[in-house]
Specification:
The complex is a heterodimer of chains A (337) and B (360).
Chain A: E1 5-16, E2 19-31, E3 36-40, H1 47-54, E4 63-71, E5 74-75, H2 81-87, E6 92-95, H3 99-102, H4 109-120, H5 125-138, H6 144-147, H7 157-169, E7 175-179, H8 187-204, E8 207-212, H9 215-221, E9 224-229, E10 232-238, H10 239-244, H11 249-257, H12 297-301, E11 307-310, E12 313-315, H13 321-336
Chain B: H1 5-10, E1 22-37, E2 43-59, E3 63-67, H2 74-81, E4 89-94, E5 97-98, H3 104-107, E6 114-117, H4 131-141, H5 147-160, H6 177-189, E7 195-199, H7 207-224, E8 227-231, H8 235-241, E9 244-249, E10 252-257, H9 259-264, H10 269-277, H11 285-290, H12 320-324, E11 330-332, E12 334-339, H13 347-353
The chains are: A alpha/beta (337), B alpha/beta (360).
């Protein structure tokens, strides 16, 4: 059974003056209609580069892309640029963190959405405008007949992100990639936007890829989760499993290091020591080993493969599976007691 | 720290006898920004009510957290308290001295007692200067110690914040985001201030790095007896570091309480909504979500704030009186918890709205 979007062994390298940046190294991801895949990781973990590569937006002269991105039977890695045009925006849409820099400041938002529609479909301006107003109404923008003629600066951050979502969804894409869509927004507005994305997913059976650094957002919206580190997917499981039985030391570190509203205050936060590695000079073996409190000899020598630990739970770690389960359970029961 | 002559001049205010326990006392503090149009002939269109009639005290050694949405006036309030911007009205007493009308010249010696850490460690550091010079700048400005003394002191401070003193001559671009924020922290503590204003100090950092910087701030606060004004939009971060939290909405403090009280027994519906909007990283997030108070729309414009209680236009509990009479900030429940609300949240409503943290 194949998923709508499946990424196999994806490698994205950029040649730079300082050396080759291995931004994505063997990523394995998949998402189906009506499901949400959450991708968590810190800056430089390769989550955004993976998303941009799916959109065909990393095809720079200095980039080397290998592997497979199977979308509805087509390999997007091999798809020529001119054919990519009819996929990008139309069948796979993307929204970004900062809606102010994604919208053109000198054009009215309605014009920008109309243009996106007319780029992909042969409809009159009038029809496109009506559809735009409808889309703005659907994402909860008040008085859309008026707002359609607003400039981006006249809208608040939350409204701009709604306009971006309206633009992305008006073409009814099969996949929506959301790259940190709520990071720049206040929590109250974030709750509104997450609600909206969830509702649209249920209504149109869109497959959603939610990229975020916030485990809270993952807990809210994801069905499956992939944890990325140094360009690799290191853990893949269901949301339920991630929060009740995480098996990766890096995931444990992330969970320990966030201050929480719903637990007694600890004296100090358990931070992950050290810094994320340079993607040009990666450590030997497991890329997390210099920061891992459970490091063993083998971690310095061999890179762990992403392997099944339990059905539906993939982990890349040299620790014994039983040991991992024990620590993961201990951590999550301590967190929720 | 070595006993050089610099140490004795660093903090004259601290040893002064007779001061009360409050480092900052603010009464009726107000800031309205004029909204003007036109270049040569400008006329006023209105006023942005950024901060309106705010009163509060901050004790020595206390950490006061300021939370609220974008545009609620939290940064403006903190900049008023430190006299970085001119107040429209009200009174500011810092360390027993009424500094409301002090001139810039008068304020200058006081500046070493109040330092600031900014959100974006990329734009807060001069890219053309080595970090040693950046960190030592406040010492140079305040003419503290000789050149050699300053240099050795900067190295000590670099060590304190977890930077390698050998990197004295490196430039900001050679450091990662977390390390740059450490440079910002070092610059803030180098004059041994009494007050540090931390404006979203960890929001630009990755989670694993955020925890490192939060721990550092807490260690320094305890070591140096710092008073901290901690601004952040992330309630879980504010709860973690603060002794008391002030929740702001449209230029007003709507609730002021210790973190545990605020997070488990919020009285103001806005605090309740803010708390329930924070996504919790647990498997029970779904359940929490179903109990969420979703606020509709955006905050109203601070140019023409709503009458009465400013939250009444978005409040699920609003009644007639809320649009007419502004509720005062007064004790609700206990003497430690102040809220400005006609119809504070009941325990039942709290139960329904938020995933209550266990009592500690």
């Amino acid at each position: 059974m194949n998923s709508l979007l499946e990424i196999h062994d994806l490698h994205v390298h950029f040649r730079t003056r300082d050396g080759v940046v291995r931004a994505v190294e063997g990523a394995e991801l998949s998402v189906d209609r009506g499901r949400t895949l959450g991708v968590v990781g810190e800056s430089g973990s390769g989550k955004s580069v993976t998303a941009l590569t799916v959109m065909g937006l990393t095809r720079f002269p200095n980039a080397t892309i290998s592997g497979q991105i199977m979308f509805d039977g087509t390999d997007l890695v091999k798809l020529p640029d001119n054919q990519m045009l009819s996929v990008r925006g139309k069948r796979i849409a993307m929204i970004f963190q900062d809606p102010l820099s994604s919208l053109h400041p000198l054009f009215r938002i309605g014009w920008q959405i109309v243009e996106a529609i007319r780029n992909h479909e042969d409809v009159s301006k009038k029809v496109a405008r009506e559809r735009t107003i409808e889309a703005l109404r659907e994402v909860g923008i008040p008085s859309p007949e008026k707002r359609v003629d607003s400039y981006p600066h006249e809208l608040s951050g939350g409204m701009r992100q709604r306009a971006m979502i309206a633009m992305a969804l008006t073409l009814k894409p099969d996949v929506l990639i959301a790259d940190e869509p709520t990071t720049a927004l206040d929590v109250t507005v974030q709750a509104q936007i997450l609600d909206l994305i969830r509702r649209l997913k249920d209504e149109y059976q869109t497959a959603i890829v939610m990229i975020t650094h916030d485990l809270g957002v993952i807990a809210e919206i994801a069905d499956e989760v992939a944890v990325m580190y140094a360009g690799r997917v290191m853990e893949r499981t269901s949301r339920q499993k991630l929060f009740t039985a995480p098996e990766l030391p890096y995931t444990w570190g992330l969970m320990r290091s966030i201050p929480r509203l719903d637990a007694p205050r600890p004296g100090r936060l358990d931070s992950i020591a050290g810094l994320p590695p340079s993607l040009i000079r990666l450590p030997s073996g497991c890329p997390f080993h210099p920061r891992c409190p459970y490091v063993m000899d083998v971690c310095l020598k061999a890179e762990p493969r992403l392997e099944q630990s339990e059905p539906g739970h993939l982990v890349a770690c040299h620790l014994q599976a039983e040991e991992r389960r024990r620590i993961g359970r201990e951590l999550t029961t301590r967190r929720s007691s | 720290m070595s006993d050089n002559s610099y140490t004795t001049v660093a903090n004259p205010g601290l040893s002064e006898p007779g001061g009360s326990n409050d480092l900052i006392v603010v009464r009726g503090l107000t800031k309205h920004f004029a909204l003007t149009r036109g270049v040569l002939i400008s006329h006023q269109l209105g006023q942005v009510h950024a901060v309106d009639d705010v009163s509060l005290e901050v004790k020595k050694g206390e950490t006061l957290g300021l939370v609220g949405e974008t545009g609620c006036g939290k940064s403006t309030l903190a900049r008023l308290v430190t006299r970085l911007i001119e107040p429209t009205g009200g009174q500011i007493v810092f360390d027993g001295k009424d500094i409301t009308r002090w001139s810039r010249r008068q304020l200058r010696p006081l500046r070493r007692d109040m330092q600031i850490i900014l959100q974006d460690p990329y734009s807060a550091l001069n890219p053309r200067r080595p970090v040693g010079a950046i960190i030592g700048e406040p010492l140079r400005i305040h003419k503290l110690g000789s050149k050699a003394e300053r240099r050795s002191h900067v190295r000590e401070v670099m060590e304190m914040v977890g930077l390698n003193p050998e990197h004295y001559n490196r430039y900001p671009y050679e450091f990662s985001g977390g390390q740059r924020q450490r440079i910002g922290v070092a610059r803030a503590i180098v004059t041994k201030p009494q007050l540090i204003l931390a404006d979203e100090p960890v929001s630009a950092l990755d989670v694993s790095i955020q925890a490192q910087v939060l721990n550092l701030l807490e260690d320094l606060r305890d070591e140096m007896g710092l008073t901290l004004l901690f601004i952040a939009h992330d309630l879980s971060v504010v709860r973690h570091v603060s002794d008391r939290i002030a929740v702001m909405y449209l230029g007003k403090i709507v609730e002021l309480a210790p973190p545990e009280t605020l997070c488990s027994h919020p009285k103001h519906p806005y605090s309740g909504a803010l708390l329930s909007a924070v996504p919790v990283a647990t498997a029970e997030a779904e359940e929490a979500r179903s109990r969420r108070i979703i606020l509709h729309g955006d905050p109203p414009s601070p140019v023409e704030p709503p009458s009465g209680c400013r939250f009444h236009t978005r409040c699920p509990k609003a009644q007639q009186i809320c649009s007419e009479v502004e509720p005062p900030l007064e004790p609700k429940g206990s003497s430690e918890q102040l809220a400005a609300c006609h119809f504070p949240l009941s325990e039942e409503e709290i139960e329904r709205a938020i995933l209550r943290p266990p009592e500690s």
